[in-house]
């Protein structure tokens, strides 16, 4: 487990976890506290790639071992790293429950971040799980190039996903790199996620 980088609190059902817990412990406590019928939109703002990958790996293992499928929207580098580790931990049948999508293709299919288009992609990919009554969780890693106007678009997208998670009753994690996430964007994200995790 990576050491903590300072103290933080985690809003969850109006309770706070201990400030000195490492992120890995926090995210597992939050995820294990969720039941099959829960609907949660979770924002995770991370500081370093190593800790981020550990938390993503723990999330996938926890969900797969609980019988869920995981839809992972991630960059190719992280997909390769995670897939290699999962091959040492999961059976072939379990590996088939992890579904990978390149995050650049997902979020920037038209070379710009267009909220309605991205929401349509999200619905397109989750619909087969819903129609076949398959339990699943989603994890989306949102990254972008320098774009001063993107914050408004991200907020629009996250508000749409927040409504989808409530309407479809699903659990969805949205991960953001802290280095790219300005204070103003953090406030926007806090307003459209029920749970915010920070390390």
CATH topology of the domain at 40-178: Rossmann fold
Largest sheet: 6 strands, parallel
State the CATH class of the domain at 40-178.
Answer: Alpha Beta
Strand order of the largest sheet: 5-4-6-7-3-8
| Share of residues in strands | 15-25%
Q: CATH superfamily membership of the domain at 40-178, which one?
A: P-loop containing nucleotide triphosphate hydrolases
Number of E-state strands: 8
Order of helices and strands: EEHEHEHHEHHEHEHE
Query: Which CATH architecture of the domain at 40-178 is right?
Result: 3-Layer(aba) Sandwich
Low-pLDDT sequence parts: 1-23
Features of this protein?
Rossmann fold, 8 helices, 199 residues, two-stranded antiparallel ribbon, disordered N terminus, six-stranded parallel sheet
């Amino acid at each position: 487990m990576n050491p903590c980088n300072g103290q933080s609190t985690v809003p969850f059902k109006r309770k706070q976890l201990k400030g000195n817990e490492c992120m890995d412990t926090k995210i597992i406590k939050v995820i294990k506290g969720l039941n099959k019928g829960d609907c949660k939109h979770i924002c995770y703002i991370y500081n370093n790639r190593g800790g981020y990958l550990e938390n993503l790996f723990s999330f996938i293992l926890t969900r797969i071992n609980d019988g869920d499928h995981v839809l992972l929207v991630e960059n190719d580098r992280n997909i390769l790293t995670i897939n290699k580790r999962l091959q040492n931990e999961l059976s072939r049948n379990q590996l088939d429950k992890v579904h990978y999508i390149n995050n650049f293709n997902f979020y920037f299919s038209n070379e710009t971040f267009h909220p309605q288009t991205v929401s349509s992609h999200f619905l397109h990919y989750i619909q087969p799980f819903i129609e076949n009554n398959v339990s699943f969780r989603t994890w989306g890693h949102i990254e972008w190039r320098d774009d001063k106007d993107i914050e408004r678009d991200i907020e629009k997208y996250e508000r749409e996903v927040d409504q989808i998670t409530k309407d479809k009753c699903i659990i969805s994690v949205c991960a953001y790199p802290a280095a790219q996430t300005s204070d103003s964007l953090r406030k926007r994200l806090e307003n459209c996620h029920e749970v915010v995790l920070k390390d």
